[in-house]
Amino acid sequence: MKHTILTLLITTLLFACKKEVTTTQVETHAKDTYRVLVIGKSGDTAVSSAMFARTETVGLTSAEDDKLSATLIAYSNGVYTLEVVNKQACQVIIRWHWQDLTINTITPSSDVIPANSTVVFTLTGTAKPGKINLKSFGDCGNSSDLIINITEQILPINLIGNTAKYDPSTGKTTISFDIEEPQLADWIIVQKLNEQKIWQQSLLIAADGLTKKYNIAL
Q1: Nearest to 111 by CA among 101, 121, 97
Q2: 41 and 66 in one domain?
Q3: What's the CA gap between 38 and 146, in Å, rounded?
Q4: Are residues 61 and 137 in the same domain?
Q5: Closest CA to 164 of 129, 128, 190
Q6: Which pLDDT tens digit goes with each residue over 108-118?
Q7: Distance, CA of 218 to CA of 203 (rounded, Å)
């Protein structure tokens, strides 16, 4: 009976959205767009905002010249982790500034990078599109003004408590979301937007009525 009700609810939802959703199991999960559907015991359906699964690993963005290189190697909740490499044979001092966002703290506090060395800096501030600028000064010469562009593609999409993250090392996508009243949830459906712009079912699970926070690896 539960499966019959679910079929009717999905059919009703399809007509309401005017989208065709297949029930074919999707085998490959990559940097794609996902959404979550939660079907309630009373027949109500909640649909999350669309989520884009993006990579959060080494090399989100970078800038360099012949004297200095900077790579944004991680980002999370307003914390920017930059790997800065001094390519010169003498130590340099790093000077920072930023545009359209605010950086409150930088660690380590020392702005010196020894000759031919690498330092990983953690910058904590606002989570919004903007630019992080840095430039090195030293006896061997000054670098160019390097610009790390913080774009919407770098910032994680977090809409009504749901996010999607793609891990290129495993080829897996993790869908995370919260259900405010889990006792009302009956079924959870994860869908992916395919190349034809049709929502395609990736996963169907029965809600346990207790769990609020979900982290589902696809």
Answers
A1: 121
A2: no
A3: 45
A4: yes
A5: 190
A6: 999 999 999 99
A7: 8
Q: Which amino acid is at 34?
A: Y
Q: Of 208 and 167, which is predicted with more confidence?
A: 208
Q: Which residue do the tokens 């982790």 mark?
A: 81
- Taking a C-beta distance cutoff of 8 angstroms, is the pair 47, 37 a contact? yes
195: left (phi over 0), alpha (psi -120 to 50) or beta: alpha
* Domain region containing 173: 2-54+157-217
Inter-CA distances, 139 with 81, 90, 91, 92, 136, Å: 27, 7, 8, 8, 10
Indicate which CATH number applies to the domain containing 125.
2.60.40.1230
Confidence of residue 94 (pLDDT cuts 50, 70, 90): very high
Both 127 and 167 in a single domain? no
Of 150, 169, 186, the position where a domain reaches its end is 150
| Highest mean pLDDT of the ranges 25-29, 47-51, 65-69, 73-77 | 65-69
- The whole-angstrom separation of Cα 199 and Cα 217 is 18
CB 192 within 8 A of CB 26: yes
